[in-house]
Amino acid sequence: MGTEGPAAAVPRIIAFDLDGTMWWPEMYMLTGGAPFRRDAQGAVYDSRGERVRLLHDTLEIFQQLAADPAFEDTEIAYVSRTEYPEWAVPCLKLFHVPVPDGGRSHYAHIADGARRPLTLHDMGRHSEIYPGSKLTHFRRIAKDSGVDFSDMLFFDNENWNCREVSQLGVVCVHTPRGMTNAVWREGLAKFAAARGGSAAAAVPAARGQAEGGGKGKRR
């Protein structure tokens, strides 16, 4: 199922943990929960007014995934052990991913068809958001997609999740402070090295302003 050589230097699937990797606070920390809302400035809040923030360079990284030709054939997966999938999914639907510089997104057919902005939820081809082992999550992704584990790249803020998933052959990157340009570049370089390619040098890093984060309960 996998491909070999330099052509495989861009992952066929890039998977992201949610809590503490893409956003903060973690879902279990919220005191209000659903329903969530998005204000006119794009900020997302729970029912008690607590804000859910995308961490660091998360938005810019997803803008790159949406518009960079290098990732046109890459599928996005969300992999989370949260006990609150009924909160996580609405949050994914509320975070918009505007394409920078008036470019065109690989997902334009989704957003244009719905006549609304592209969201993080739209970009997720695979969604494994429920309690349990991430080994189960990735085995389901492999079964559904037909993609080899070695053609997948995974970002997670918990090192023990990375150690566990790496046993399958997935290239894993620890993100102790959430998604930053540094860990993004590290992931692309690590994957390219594992596949014998050089896409990490060809694919530019996303650019963006850092936003605060933290660490919390294992997810």
From TrEMBL:
Cross-referenced Pfam families: Acid_PPase
Signal peptide: none
Gene Ontology terms, MF aspect: acid phosphatase activity
UniProt xrefs under InterPro entries: HAD-like_sf, HAD_sf, MDP_1_eu_arc
PANTHER family according to UniProt: MAGNESIUM-DEPENDENT PHOSPHATASE 1, MAGNESIUM-DEPENDENT PHOSPHATASE 1 MDP1
Protein name: Magnesium-dependent phosphatase-1
Species per Swiss-Prot/TrEMBL record: Raphidocelis subcapitata
